Amino acid sequence: MKRDYADADHHGARAICPCFRPGAVRLTALRSGFGTVAILLVFLAAAAHAADLTPQKLSANDIQFFETKVRPILVEKCYKCHSKEADKVRGGLMLDTREGLLHGGNTGPALVPGKPGDSLMIQAIGYKDEDLQMPPKGEKLSDQQIADLTEWVRRGAPDPRMPIMGASGKSYGGVGRNHWAYQPVKKPEVPKVQNAAWVKNPIDNFVLAKLEASGMKPNTPADKATLIRRVYFDLIGLPPHPSEVIAFSKDESPDALAKLVDRLLASPQYGEHWARYWLDVARYSDTKGDAPGRDDLRYPHAWTYRDWVIDAFNADLPYDVFIKAQLAGDYIQMLAENAAKNKKQPPPETRTWIAAQGFLTLGNQFNGRRDDIIGDQIDVTTKAFLGLTVACARCHDHKFDPIPQKDYYSLYGVFANSVQSTELPTMQIKVPQTEDLVDYLAKSADLERRQRELKAQRDELRRATIAAKGKGKNIAQMDPAKRGEFQRLQRLERELQRDIGNLETTHPGAPARANALYDIHRVNPRQNSHDWPLLIRGETGHRGEIVPRRFLEALSPDPKKRPEWHEGSGRWQLAQAIADPKNPLTARVFVNRMWQQHWGVGFVETPDDLGNMSAPPSHPELLDWLAATFVENKWSIKSLHRMIVLSATYQQSTLNNPVFAEKDPHNKMLWRYNLRRMDFEELHDSLLAVTGELNPTRGGKPVPISSEQFAKRRAIYTLIDRQNPPELLTQFDFPNPDVESGRRYETLVPQQALFLMNSPMVIETARKLVDRPAFAELKSDQERVVLLYLAIYQRWPTKQEVEFGLHYVKANPTGTDVALVAEMPAAKLDARNARINAKKAMAAKQQGRFNPTVGGVYDNQTPLDAWTKLAHALFQSNEAMFYN
After folding, report:
1. 362 to each of 376, 414, 568, 716, how far by Cα in Å?
2. In 3D, which of 506, 502, 443 has the Cα closest to residue 701?
3. CA pair distance 698, 679, nearest whole angstrom
4. What is the DSSP letter of 744?
5. C-alpha angle with apex 452: 448 to 455, nearest 5 degrees?
6. Is the CB of residue 728 less than 8 Å from the CB of residue 755?
7. What is the per-residue DSSP string for 814-877?
8. Of 221, 267, 239, 232, residue with least CA distance to 790
9. Rounded to whole angstroms, how far apart are CA atoms 144 and 155?
10. Which of 121, 455, 544, 859 lies 20 to 30 Å (CA to CA) from residue 883?
11. Residues forming a β-bridge with 298
């Protein structure tokens, strides 16, 4: 009887397990003839000397790596001899639990977590010693399996096969459908509080009630300069102009903040800022990663999805429609066109809905492996909208959540019946005729002619190959001229794909196109949608029963009466099921994401996984109240922003309270506002904004981050290469564009400080702040110091800070050092000034030179004067990178 991994894990594996070849001397277990990876797992188990049995705190990535890479090897190769149902447990080693693995067998340690080079296990599976080869010759693990186990050890051998402890200290795993996130959202009553005067909206009631119950109270409000800086960066990712700081500080009206928030939410910069967070979730990239065959690596029109997301946020597109458009935009477009046809009206002019499907179509292409492409689509869909790791059920029932393997293949059938057309539709039905378009069409026709010619040549060569095979020859035995012809055609096809990519990517007349997804029958009328079989252990050669297309069992009101989807692929029905107001996860997941972006951390710290492995929410009642209110407000994202930002909770200062910090060091109770570091995009854009040089141009094709075209654009418009993202972005914790990323994890590395210290972009920003008439025309140096603080930190300096700034400038009048030049002899000072003037004259000839360093900037070599050096020094502080 065949069993999947879930059965094997709980009842003992039944997989056939070939034997290791006994070694000569290294391990006694080798002499006793262990099963295939028996010795390998003796190595794993013997790590008891290096690790204890306490629960591990595992990241979502580590859990997914174990479930998809490591567990399948253990189940398929090892459990027959090392599990509860083994006829005889070899070597005293049990491997179907983490406890058994860490307790070890009858041999010594062979695994050093985190050090694969010191682990005997890695030596054995690598066949580096002929006396220590496991499995034996002819049964060696594949290179990929060896690499996966090596990477697992390098990560510290993370193993989730033990209940994870929640915040309460009680087991929070393995509770299936009774887990809080699977329960219907019920809007709780707003709690009553003692300090009702502090409350600005119901969010404050929930937070204050919890604080009062713990004997705590909220922080004092943030001052107005701090608040306007926070709100600006939070909502549009840009700093306020000094004049706006002054005006807001003087506005004493009770609705001053509300007016400011409404203005920012109506700004086009709002969508540019908040779309970037969603693009992280959608694993957006302008390239294909592992492109199939000889395809060009680029997605020439990926930017149309990025622009669609920006427009959707700016238009406050209801979130339920936002979901449906990204999963089934072709259906929405078809419905709109049919409605127009029935009313005898012209079809919609702009195909906005089609572009939304970049969510599904812009992932890694996995060298054309269809199973992996579909797996990626399932993963991004369920994590992004449902906060569930459904992809973990690809090879076996999910180990923690009530997601059987059948559910994975129900969704697999949906996406397997959806294909991307090779003819990408243009964004407009009628494309205006321009000279650029005429030139583009001529060049496109030439490329199509080359494509036809190459196809004819390849067809002819294919016929010759078939004829040769009929005579018992392979390609290597063919005429050398024929082999050379194969190589020539392959080269020409690569060049053709490159030229097509260049034309679509760079030509000004190339129409905007959408990476659309269609039901298979719309692309190929001879094919009909159908259900797909479950793949036992995820192996394509082991097909199981046919699984109907339908929604997840855990999210269905009556699992036994789940409707099956027979109309088309099922994507439209899937989108409706996810966006259903009764779905317990959809609103919770999105509200948690939004709260996280406003606070730096969500109610649940794992935004992509609200399942059984997640910790309990810090404020479960508030999460449900916001989720229910979000749906009541017709899924309005801007209304959700407004409610959060206008709460007294959000408007608290970040000041520390030693007593509360001792009781709640991680601010789970929200007794203060969290100090937050800027993303790279916010830092980059603010450098351009403070000098008034930010290019307001919206949308369009991506530009490389070091190019002249990017020098003054917002960072969201930079080109993202899936395989090689810009180094500066990764140094500032830009997420991996290969996977769905709901949260950017912060690191502290020297390169971040070095960017602010040495980047020409930062230096030129400091120069431009002081090299302008408005700065020189100020009446006093005190006013100049104040203006620098307002421009860089959006606040007034303290008296002491003004004194420090003035002292610095007076001590450094020429800008070459910080020495007191007044103490220099006159002759030495004259010579020094002459050298400086000579350098300035030489640098003047290089004005306007473009520096192609990351970020791109027009700079010059003029020595920095004292005021520029002061401005540059102010950029070096933490305050320039953090929300106060």
Report:
1. 10, 18, 22, 17
2. 506
3. 20
4. P
5. 135
6. yes
7. SSS-SS-GGGS-HHHHHHHHHHHHHHHHHHHTTTTEEE-STT-EEE--PPP-HHHHHHHHHTTS
8. 239
9. 16
10. 859
11. 287
The alpha carbon of residue 193 and the mean position of all alpha carbons in its chain are separated, in whole angstroms, by 39
Instruction: Please give the helix or strand (H or E) that residue 98 lies within, else none.
Output: helix 98-103
Q: What does the alpha-carbon distance between residue 486 and residue 464 come to, in Å, rounded to a whole number? A: 11
Outline where 507-563 has alpha helix (H): 520-523
Q: What is the pLDDT of residue 814?
A: 61
Which of 707, 862, 683 lies closest to 762 in space, CA to CA? 683
Segment holding 532, helix H or strand E: strand 532-535
* 72 upstream amide cis, omega within 30 of 0: no
The answer to whether 506 and 419 have CB atoms below 8 angstroms apart is no
- Please report, for residues 60, 378, 785, 803, the alpha-carbon distance to residue 389 in angstroms, rounded to integers and kept in the order given: 9, 9, 52, 56
Taking residue 874's Cβ as centre, other Cβ atoms within 10 Å add up to 21
Instruction: Count CB neighbours of 128 within 10 A.
Output: 10
Tell me how far the alpha carbon of residue 133 is from its chain's centroid: 40
Q: Which amino acid type is present at position 82?
A: H
- Cα 82 from Cα 334, distance rounded (Å): 56
Q: What is the mean pLDDT of residues 15-32?
A: 30
Residues 6 or more apart whose CB falls under 8 angstroms from that of 304 comprise: 355, 358, 427, 512, 513, 514, 515
Q: How confident is residue 86, by pLDDT bands cut at 50, 70 and 90?
A: low
Q: Residue 52 is encoded by which pair of tokens?
A: 């204890």
Q: Which residue has the tokens 């967070």?
A: 277
Query: Do the Cβ atoms of 387 and 350 come closer than 8 Å?
Result: no
Specify burial of residue 522 (Cβ count, 10 A radius: 0-12, 13-18, 19+): middle
Distance CA 815, CA 639 (A): 50
Closest CA to 415 of 250, 568, 254: 568
**161-198 pLDDT, tens per residue?**
654 333 333 332 335 788 999 999 999 999 999 999 99
Residue 497 is inside which H or E element, if any? helix 480-506
Element at 533 (helix H, strand E):
strand 532-535
Query: Of the candidates 585, 528, 589, 523, which has an alpha carbon nearest to the alpha carbon of residue 551?
Result: 585
For the segment 679-693, the average pLDDT, to the nearest whole number, is 93
Estimate the crossing angle of helix 586-599 against helix 370-386, to 10 degrees.
80
**Residue 691, amino acid:** T
| The model's pTM | 0.78
